[in-house]
Structures are given as structure tokens and as C-alpha cells.
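Amino acid chain
________________
===
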Amino acid sequence: MKQFLRLLTYARPYLPKLIFGFVLILIVGQSGLFMPLVQKFVIDDIIFNAKEPEITRRFLGFLGPEYTFTPVEWLVVILGAIITFYAVFAILSYIRTYVMTWVSQRILFDMRNSVFSHMQKMSMRFYDVQGTGQILSRVREDVSSLSSLATSTSIDIITDTVMLIVMLFIMFTWNWKLTLISLMVIPLMVGNYFFFVNRMRPIWRIWRHKWADISTALYESVAGAKVVKAFHREHHQERKLFHSMRQTLKWQIDIAKNRTAMERISVFFRRTGSSVVLCYGGYLVLEGEFTVGMMVAFYQYLDRLYGPIMQLININATIQEAMVSAERVFGLLDSEPTVAEAPDAVDLPAIRGHVKFEEVSFSYEPENPVLHKITFEAKPDMMVALVGPSGCGKSTIANLIARFYDPTDGAITIDGYDLREVKIKSLRKQMGIVLQDNFLFQGSIAENIRFGRLNATDEEVVQASLAANAHKFIVEQLPQGYETEVGERGMRLSGGQKQRIAIARTILRNPRILILDEATSALDSESEALIQEALDRMMKGRTSFVIAHRLSTILKADVILVIEEGKIVETGTHEQLLDADGKYAEMYNKQFKIKQRNKDDWFK
């Protein structure tokens, strides 16, 4: 109930339209009461009591003696009334549907915006833990399920409840004994419902999670299509997805099996109750306690009585299923970012780029520390290189500088400001990051470069491209120049082209602190030379942190930090570390020998 009420808060901005829609619902929802009353009148007063004066006096006497209809004329009047009635209700039903659909879509729009907006505030740990399919499933399927709960389900509840009350009042007025007999099967129907819903609730929860896993597998198969085909693993992916879908099919069949059993048993109780009422009602007609028309109308109301009850039962089952979605959606909305701004956080002013790590330790999981008491200092305009084997913690240090994570112990300061005491936006707008595999968004070249600064002019975009050695290939090799579409994840561009676009994007941002994470490691020698030239140009006048496996790219670094198992084991310039003949010298000599051996093999 708490989650349902919380869901209804999303309808608050549209309350006038929602109230208007509910009023129409109450009016239209009672249309089912009209026809049985008309049938009762036709049977009892026209067919079995076809006396013109008596009929007229009974129904039109208040209008005066001049109103005299024969039974046949009464039938014509009734036909006209029925046609008019249903025409008016058709118009009202259309208006009701339009209004409630409008409200439903607005709620869906607002909820998806809320979920997506909240996701943007979440820290990187959230994306590390949650799978892509789980996240997309919450934004699409779960939110859609909840939006219908706030509108169409609420409509059904209100309509069926009001109709139930009105019909019970009419039926008790006609014959209270027959009405009580009609209600005897309802406890059996409710008990049947609760029995099966308690069995289905855990199945719904498992099915939701399994389907989210399938969404992840589908996304990976599409995003990694080139890898799948390169390794000829199409059949493997098919079998993997088939296995996941087969598990989901099992849960879907279980849900369908239990739901069908619940519905069939309810129908059995409903038919049994109807049969008892039919026989006892027939007895009352024979005894003269009930008219034929009243019996026909009562039996129709009985069908409409059981209908709303079963509808309310099914709605409750739908609500229980939707509550699983509510747990997932509101669980996401209630989650807090692990990197949160302090209440008294201040804007970081324009920085010089003086970065200090003081006894910094960090772990993604408490039992598995990644960094151990890291201490170093990067003064403004310095180039600091981080080297070491894979998994030693280099990228983690870069992530901490960008405050994608907060250190477990110790402190990181920029120009004397502790990063945990400044606003994240004011920090990151003064930083630029170039990765090994940079992400390009679907859109044009110009849009991807302008992502670095959204209000940049076309001239500034071109200047950034020139500085990144990207302008030439954009205007000479791409069919539409800066308006060329890059495709999903930049698939229409080569690795070197994507990298230069990413560098142009970062140059346009004009950051004071620059992080280069393996920015040239996966490129051919020609692309590497162009990109290295662009990087050298970009690093001038900025504090730069360079993560590199190719030690030839960091020979000019002011400080080289050698990381091993989360600790700084050596510090110094390239020459100093070679003279020390330690870990760095070993790494450098090994790379040099491999490079020399490759040259010798080429000349042979």
C-alpha cells in the first residue's frame, strides 16, 4: 500500500484531469445497470401487464392525462431511449479513454524521467554492480507496469467497486434472501485467490530478474556482434540465450498454470452460485414472490456481481505482480550514490592543478583492497606517469582523481581542497579524460566533439579538431565532413579516428587536469604518432596523469610512479629509474628487447 500511494504521487500534477476522468469513469461504469432495468420493465409491465392506461399512469402520470402510449408505442419509445443512452455513453467513454490515456502517458513519461535522472546521479559503483539488462528492464518494463497500475488499474478498482455497491443495493431491495445466497460463494472465490497468489508472488519476482538477465544477454550479443562473429561463436550465443529463455519459459508456464487454475476454480464457484440462484429464483417465481422480469434482471445482475468480484480478484493479482516492479523501481530511486556531495560542499574555484594523495587506500570490496596508503604529489603543469602490470591499481588512481569513487582511507586534495568537500560538477568541469576505448554517441562528428562543451561554436569545434589532428581526415575522408553520422558507438570510424575525435572533445573542454588512460596502446604506429603529437600539444600547461604500458610514450614525464599490487614501489624520472635498476628498468629493458627483436625479425 505504501508503494501504491507513493506511485499515486506521480499523478498529483494532473489531478484536475484525473478527477474529471474518474467522474466519467463512475458515470460510464454504471452503464451495465441500465439494460437489466429496461428488460424488467419490458417483461413485467409491457409483455405480462400490457394495459395501456396502467402503464401510462405508472410511468408518465405526473406529466398529465394527455400522455397516453400503447404498449407498441412504449416499445418504440424504449428503443429510442436505448439508442440515445448508448450513443451518449459512447461519447462519454471516448472522452474518458482519451483523458485517462493522456494522464497515463504523462505519468509514464515523468516516472521514466525520474528514474533516468536518478541514474545520472548514481556513482560508478552502481553501474559496476548492476547489469545493463537490469537497468534497462527497470526503465522500460517495470516503469510501464507501474504507470498502468496508477491509471487503468485504479480505474477498474473504482468502477468495479461502485458497480458492486449499487448492484448489491438493488438486489437486496428486490430480495434479500436471494442476494445472501448469491454471496455465499464469494468467500470461496477470495480464499482461492489468496491461495494461488501466495504461490505466484515468488515466481513473479524470479521471472522479473530472469527477464532482465535476458535483456543483458541480448544487449551484449548486439553490442559485441563483431567479437561473436570473429570467434565464430554465433551458435554458442544462441545456446546461451536459449538456456536463459528456457529458464524464463519455465517460470512463465508456472505463472500461467497457477493463474489458469485460479481462474478456472473461481469460474466453477461462480457457475455453482449462479445455478443455485437460478433454481431458487425459479422457485420464488413459482411461489409468486418474484416476477419473471425481476428474475431475469436479478440473474443478469448476478452475472455482473460475480464479474466485478472476479475482476477485483484479478486486479489484485495484477497489483501483486506490479508490486515486484515497484520494489525494483523504487529500490533504484531509494538507492543513494556511494559518492555523495556533502551538505556543505562548496564550488571548486578555477584551479591550478596541484594534486596530492595523502595515505590513500581503496577497495571495491572490503575483503579485497586495491590501493594501500598511496602518497604522492603532482604540481601544476606536471606530467605524472603511472606504470605497472595490469590490475595493479593505475586506473583506480585515475578514477579517484575524477572522484568516480571516494577513498576508503586517506585524502585527495586539489589546490588544498579535499575532493569530498567540493561539488562534483565544479570538479569534473575542470577535468578531461581520454581512454583507450573512448565512447562515441550516436550522432554527428560535430555533436560528439561538442559534447565536451555544449555551447561551443562551429569555429571552436574546428579549432579543437585541428589541435587533435582530426580536421584533415574529417573534411577529406568523411562524406559529409563534420555532419557525418558516426553510427552506434562510433562503429563507422577507425580506432585512430575515434581516438582523435575523443581528444578533440577533451581539448574543447579546456581542462586544467588531464587523465590519459592507455590513450595510444591499441593503435597502429601512424595513428599513434598523430595522436601522440596531439596529446603532447594538449598536455602543455596542464597537470596530466598518463597511464601507459608503452613506456616509450612517457619518457618526458616529470614523475613516473611505478605501481605494484596497489603500492608505489618506485618514484622518479625516466633516467633516475633506469639508474636505480629496479622494477621500472626491468620493464623498460624487457620492452626494448621485444621491440629490437621485432625490428631484427622484420629486416630478416
Remarks:
- Residues 596-604 have pLDDT under 50 and may be disordered.
